[in-house]
Amino acid sequence: MIAVLRRDLLLAVRAGGGFGLALVFFLIVVILVPFGVGPNTGVLRQIAPGILWVAALLACLLSLDRIFALDFEDGSLPLLALSPLPLEGVVLAKAAAHWMTTGLPLAVAAPVFGLLLNLSPNGYFWVCVSLLVGTPALSLIGAFGAALTVGIKRGGLLLSLLVLPLYVPVLIFGAQVVQRGADGLSVAVPLGMLAVMSLGSLALMPFAAAAVLRVNLR
Amino acid sequence: MTLTVSDLTCVRDGVPVLGGLSFEVQAGTALILRGPNGVGKTTLLRCLAGLQPPLKGTVQGVGEDAAYASHADGVKTSLSVEENLAFWASVYGLAVPEDVYQTFDLTGLRSRSAGTLSAGQKRRLGLARLGVIGRRVLFLDEPTVSLDAFSVKMFAGWIRGHLQAGGIAVIATHIDLGLDAPELDLTPYIAGADADGADEAFL
After folding, report:
1. Which residue of B51, B66, B74 is in closest CB contact with A76?
2. How many Cβ atoms sit within 10 Å of the Cβ of residue B111?
3. DSSP-derived 3-state class of residue A200
4. Contact B32, B177 (CB under 8 A)
């Protein structure tokens, strides 16, 4: 598992691997919003938590189809399926690598982007925390979607259609954490729900994804 | 260790391709699969390796010892030759044996990025994976595609060594590898309309 994780991280940072792509995409979306909404800082402050989370979600989506599609194309996926490593472990390692190259950098960089949206000062910490807690669910659910669409040509679009509705609860509670945190209210309930979703996906998604991968590899 | 196949029916996309296959391969021997394009050599190999469950029949004696090599090499182009082999070795919990570079004529290419290799060199790297993962039952699908005459001989030599060490190899190929192995023509086993199709229960 460590071997798969290490290889995927290495592949991501090598040329053409797409590391940083999510971060730059996130940055661009966040920069575009004030242009569209106008320079009214009050409005920006109000919508900042939602925009940050929607942007993070879209940035995460950008690299999802690479999780399995590349390995499927060059033939490594059936070889991995025959290796002593359980396919569930492969899925988990690949989802972890995806999170480390998208979710984690997003969470770390989000406070800076919050500044661009005039996020209230109390919110910076909670943006970071909510993304740290919530993005693992995005990567894990995404890995399931990627496994579903692995054999399909141009499956990326279908993947977005399948996965985005599943992201809705994460988005709602993630944005709630930031909103409430920024307003100085208690964040215990939405943060708890967010953690539940991440832990639930951690428990279920590797098995679900491995099952559909086995069907897709036939 | 013996690979025993009895009354096997393989399916591709739900359609039976080959039916009624039975054969045995003893440890230390190879079996060459022959047949025209599309007869089902790849399907059979995938089925034997365990990637595709058979419709009927059993494959015994493989267990956790199967290795499969297909048309696609599973080579990552942005990693170097060494990194590619090291990855497969660590997935199997092994170390890369030093002589594998010599055997597959990769010594001068060790630190080259796999993306800059020629088709034949890439193929050799893909086959070298078999020398790294230490599996004993090999299912090889056209292993010599894009290899030159010298590399084919070298690979045949490696297979011979593998068999002498008690391994098993089932190879689908159109060329003569120079192995002293029985051949199995798959043409008589093409599944006819009377094969137990997956949809029969439906009718």
Report:
1. B74
2. 9
3. helix
4. yes
Q: How many angstroms from the chain centroid is the CA of residue B184?
A: 15
Please count the structural domains in chain A.
1
Which residues of chain B make contact with A78, given a CB cutoff of 8 A? 46, 51, 68, 70
Residue A80 CB partners (closer than 8 Å, separation 6+):
A4, A71, A87, A90, B91
Which of left, alpha, beta for B34 (phi over 0: left; psi -120 to 50: alpha)?
beta
ipTM of the complex: 0.85
Digit-coded pLDDT (tens) for B147-174: 888 999 999 999 999 999 988 999 998 8
Contact status of A81 with chain B (Cβ, < 8 Å): yes
Query: Can you tell me whether residue B62 is helix, strand or coil?
Result: coil
What residue type is assigned to position A108 of the chain? V
Domain ranges of chain B: 27-52+61-183
Distance CA A33, CA B142 (A): 54
pTM of the predicted structure, to 2 decimals: 0.89
CATH 3.40.50.300 assigned to B27-52+61-183 = yes
In which domain, by residue range, is A81 found? 2-217
